[in-house]
Amino acid sequence: MSFASSLIISPNVEISPSIFGFLDSVRDGSQILDSSRFFSRNRAANLMNKKQKRVNHSHSIELKYPILCQGGYGSVIAASMVANPAGEMAVSAEERVYNVVMKQAALVKRQLRTAGELDVKPDIVLPGTLSLLNEAYDRCGEVCAEYAKTFYLGTMLMTPERQKAIWAIYVWCRRTDELVDGPNASHITPSALDRWEARLEDLFQGRPFDMLDAALADTLTKFPVDIQPFKDMIEGMRMDLRKSRYKNFDELYLYCYYVAGTVGLMSVPVMGVAPDSHASTESVYNAALALGIANQLTNILRDVGEDARRGRIYLPQDELAQAGLSDEDIFAGRVTDKWRTFMKNQIKRARLFFDEAEKGVLELNKASRWPVWASLLLYRQILDEIEANDYNNFTKRAYVSKAKKLLALPMAYARSLLSP
Ligand SMILES: CC(C)=CCC/C(C)=C/CC/C(C)=C/CC/C(C)=C/[C@@H]1[C@@H](COP(=O)(O)OP(=O)(O)O)[C@]1(C)CC/C=C(\C)CC/C=C(\C)CCC=C(C)C
Ligand SMILES: [Mn+2]
């Protein structure tokens, strides 16, 4: 991606007067994320395993995302409630995220009941706005094509309404990511993120700030997309500003949910569930969440060296220690047997999340499955490439060749024809 194109989509939140100048219209609405509902202890379930075992939830809840045990990863039971140093019981990231998933699923079900069928609502168009909106959506499509070509191609089978909506969501996510990853990242402060969130709230209330926001505001009138995953993605960016180490997988899981699991939750209401699917809405959302987590874990494993050069280590510190590794080993970038063993386990875990995601793709509307399969197959191949590089993710970038990318498209298409 070129620096220039990155600037074009860079959100115009006030980050530094010297760069963008002061923008009166971006209100300083430091909305505080309502996290109280996250911490409800009444709900817990197993996201990654259909058995969903529940035991006395005031003390311990069995969850089964793949965590490290002596012999590697597996379907290991982990307590979701852990005592913090003060001896208080804290709720695990998995449980917090599960609450969001349940809320999203409930929202879609409610809309299904009231609308009869989850489909596109009619446009209410003021004279002149339609062409502006079309322009806005076209621009979203261009940005998407420039940043994520294969995925963009995959959206070609979707209905025009769904396609445009996914592009608009993509652009909002990309702009949010640009805030902390783009050329102006060093100027981003928590209050700039607060302003970006205030702008999000405005957009959800039908007051978009610019053309690209207007496309998303229009999408919201057509699909039952909730604000929570969007707010949570911004929360992930806040997390990136304040921390560069993750104590354990629970912390890393929450980060992965914020920056990528949220994408799954935003996309499903647009992509739609197949009319002949018998899967529960919750299970489809769980799969969507799993794909986001799998993608982000893969992204992290691919970029270990690059992140370390920025002083960041997105790997569970306790698992590194168990493997006999320290931050210094990562900064030194030596591929040792200890590192290979550690990486094998991390890759195994990421693949478990991809496996979980696969179950849900079949349940999506047929026309929406292609881009999802394409993204799943392509991202999962990055793990194969890390193995092919003999786990040197310090100085070698695991990269899926153009030929393999092209091959993934017909493969994804063939899979999208399979019925649930
Ligand atoms: C069909 C489809 C894939 C739709 C998703 C479209 C969409 C809205 C994508 C937004 C992606 C985005 C810009 C996220 C911002 C945060 C971020 C950058 C996350 C990383 C993406 C990879 O990007 P990249 O390699 O460019 O990363 P760098 O910034 O360069 O480091 C992520 C790794 C996460 C992306 C997560 C997804 C694409 C989740 C996809 C899940 C679904 C679409 C749900 C599918 C449904 C079922 C039932 C499985
Ligand atoms: Mn990024």
UniProtKB/TrEMBL annotation:
Catalytic reaction(s) noted: 2 (2E,6E,10E)-geranylgeranyl diphosphate = 15-cis-phytoene + 2 diphosphate
One GO biological process term: carotenoid biosynthetic process
Pathway it works in: Carotenoid biosynthesis; phytoene biosynthesis; all-trans-phytoene from geranylgeranyl diphosphate: step 1/1
Example GO molecular function: geranylgeranyl diphosphate synthase activity
Enzyme Commission numbers on file: 2.5.1.32
Tagged with keyword Cytoplasm: no
Gene Ontology cellular component list: plastid
Gene3D superfamilies recorded: Farnesyl Diphosphate Synthase (1.10.600.10)
InterPro entries (alphabetical): Isoprenoid_synthase_dom_sf, Squ/phyt_synthse, Squalene/phytoene_synthase_CS, Trans_IPPS_bact-type, Trans_IPPS_HH
Keywords: Carotenoid biosynthesis, Isoprene biosynthesis, Transferase
Coiled coil: none
Protein family according to the UniProt entry: Belongs to the phytoene/squalene synthase family.
Protein name per the record: 15-cis-phytoene synthase
Organism for this UniProt entry: Cucurbita melopepo subsp. melopepo
Gene: PSYA
